[in-house]
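re: that chain from earlier
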Amino acid sequence: MAKYNQPPAQQVESWKSFLVDYARNIATSVICGYILFIADVFGVMMRSRRILTPALYASYVAYSVFFAIWCYIILFVQRKNPNWENTHMHLIYVATGAVSVGGLMWVIALWPVFHIWTIPLGLVGLFLFLSLLALLPASKKKAD
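^ sequence. v structure.
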């Protein structure tokens, strides 16, 4: 309700900044998706025999652990405990470790195909994930 108590000029500015951020995230998603499409990263992951399959599967498992923890935090922990960042630090540590191991294993798995370009393509994939994540509606804490 706090945003409706603002003067009209501030409401217009907040909507402008929201739309600019939203458009920037959409543009980043489209550009990153196009780069990954042109490089045929997903096709290589599905069809190439030169990739290290056990490392790729290990990265899938690590990313799945990260995604499961993220969903658990968003759906359950954050709603029940407003101070979850301080009380559930072990979840943050495990999620950070899982995504780090997943990224490392992904680079190891695709290195035989893309060589030095594996690292920039991994960063493009990270930016794609973060920009898509920024498009989701967030539950922000109300300022008291």
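The chain has a mean pLDDT of 88.
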